[in-house]
Amino acid sequence: QQEKEDLQEKLKLRECLSQTAGKSEATPAPSKNIDLEIKQLQCKLKNSNNDITKQATTIKSLKTQVQEKEQQIQELQARIPRLERDLNMKRHLIEDLRSRLKANQENEKTSNETIQSLQKKVKALTEDCSNKKTSIDLLKQRLNAAAKEKSECEQMYHKAKDELEEKNLKLTNLENKVVENECAMTELETAASRQLHYLAKQSEQALGIVQKKLLVTSEKAEEFRRFVKVLARELQHSVQELRTKIRQAKKMEEGRVCKKKFFQQSFQLAASILNVSTVDLEAIFEDDAETAKKKMEFEKDKEWLQYIQKLLETQFPFASYLMDAILQKLNEKKKLIEEYSSLMKHT
Predict the structure, then answer these.
(1) Measured by CB atoms within 10 angstroms of the end CB, which terminus of the chain is less buried, N or C?
(2) Do residues 337 and 235 touch, judged by C-beta distance below 8 A?
(3) Following DSSP, what letter does each residue of 12-45 receive, concatenated?
(4) What is the pLDDT of residues 192-227, one digit of tens each?
(5) Is residue 264 assigned to a domain?
(6) DSSP 8-class letter at 275
(7) What angle do CA 297, 303, 309 make, to 5 degrees?
(8) 3-state secondary structure of 134
(9) pLDDT score recorded for residue 228
(10) Domain count, the chain
(11) Mean pLDDT within 141-148
């Protein structure tokens, strides 16, 4: 505004100067000095007119700026009541936010923990991103390599196309030959079908013979299994009988020895404490030991029979395992026979 007022004052001065210059031109010059002054004034007038035009343009631009600023001022004045409303709303919001701040401060501890966990996740994600960037760079390199390969493949394709055209010509020749070969093949197929019918009849007869043989072998296998089972049971029974005989012989010897030695006194003391006879006490001790032994031997025999049953049910070959099992039982029987014979000699 100050610049505008200064320019207006200058304009007024220049208008006064221009008016004085016009008056001086109207009056006749009495002397040479007046002519010189008139020329000087004309030069000044031209300069002042040029300045005026410049200043007028600047004034116009300033006026436009002033109008724009006035419009801005009006807009700002219109915004003032809105801003006041916003201020009131913001004050209410600030009060609400203060109340929420207290609640948020309480939840801040939990949020801090979650933030820490999220920061860890972010670190992990950044590491993944860096790894992915490296993988992307590698893929770009591969892409460039693939583009080169593509160009090479296109060249190869053009070459192959030319070769294909040549091969198509060869194919047409080959197709003609194939047609001729097919005719020959049909003739061969008719001859082969006749031979196949003849072979099929022969194979049916052979299958019937094989089925009969299979039935005979299956019956033989069942008989063999029965024989093995009966043999195992007989072995077990013979071993059990030998064991019972050995026990009886041992009882006879132990009865004679125990009556003569130290065990008499201990049994007498135990019998006097328990108010039982020595014979009853000996029977109790012998029965407990014998029952335990019998149980052990019965379980072993049961396991042996189950093992043989498994061997018979398993797939071939099982002959060596079966032979080992039966030899084991036979050796046991042999040892028992020797033991029994030695006991019988002593008695």
Answers:
(1) N
(2) no
(3) HHHHHHHHHHHHHHHSPP-SHHHHHHHHHHHHHH
(4) 788 777 777 777 777 778 777 777 677 767 767 777
(5) no
(6) T
(7) 140
(8) helix
(9) 73
(10) 1
(11) 90
Contact 246, 340 (CB under 8 A): yes
- Contacts for 304 with CB less than 8 Å, ≥ 6 apart: 232, 236, 325, 328, 329
Task: Give the residue from 292, 289, 207, 230 showing the smallest Cα distance to 254.
Answer: 289
From its phi and psi, is residue 26 left (phi > 0), alpha (psi between -120 and 50) or beta?
A: alpha
- Is 195 part of any domain? no
Burial call 220-241: b when 16+ CB within 10 Å, e when fewer: eeeeeeeebeeebeebbeebee
Q: Is residue 77 part of a domain?
A: no
Residues in the chain: 347
DSSP class of residue 261 equals: S
Q: What is the DSSP letter of 262?
A: T
249, 340 in Cβ contact below 8 A?
A: yes
Give the model confidence (pLDDT) of 158-170 as tens digits: 888 888 888 888 8
The parent domain of residue 247 ranges over 233-253+287-345
**DSSP assignment, residue 272?**
H
Query: Which tokens go with 239?
Result: 């071993």
Q: How far apart are CA 213 and CA 250, in angstroms?
A: 55
pTM of the model: 0.32
Residue 304 is assigned to a structural domain of this protein: yes
